[in-house]
Design brief:
Strand order of the largest sheet: 1-2
Distance between the termini: 34 Å
Helix content: 40-55%
Strand content: 5-15%
Shape: globular
Order of helices and strands: HEHEHH
Number of strands: 2
Length: 98
């Protein structure tokens, strides 16, 4: 589970796989990872999230990953988007924030 990675200071990132019906373990982790250690990502061009599963993935679809995680956690999309954006800029501090 994510505890060992979190104890080492890692962030946990979720891709389109979290939206798949058979991804119960990943969904469970997405519900438990602290928001301040969560990222969302694309595995472009592979593993597009539902509703694009089976098609070529693209970075614009990462919104669907965040929406699904928000639904799993019972929180707003905006809270997931804000947390994961803040985490990105904290982790990659050399990238200027627009």
């Amino acid at each position: 589970m994510p505890e060992a990675a979190l104890d080492l200071g890692f962030y946990i990132s979720f891709s389109g796989i979290v939206t798949f019906k058979n991804a119960a373990q990943i969904k469970d982790v997405a519900q438990r990872v602290p928001l301040e250690r969560m990222l969302v990502e694309t595995d472009s061009p592979y593993l597009a999230p539902v509703p694009f599963r089976g098609k070529t993935n693209e970075p614009a679809y990462v919104k669907h990953v965040a929406e699904h995680i928000a639904e799993l956690r019972g929180v707003s999309f905006d809270s997931i988007a804000q947390a994961t954006t803040d985490n990105f800029f904290r982790l990659f501090a050399k990238i200027p924030r627009p």
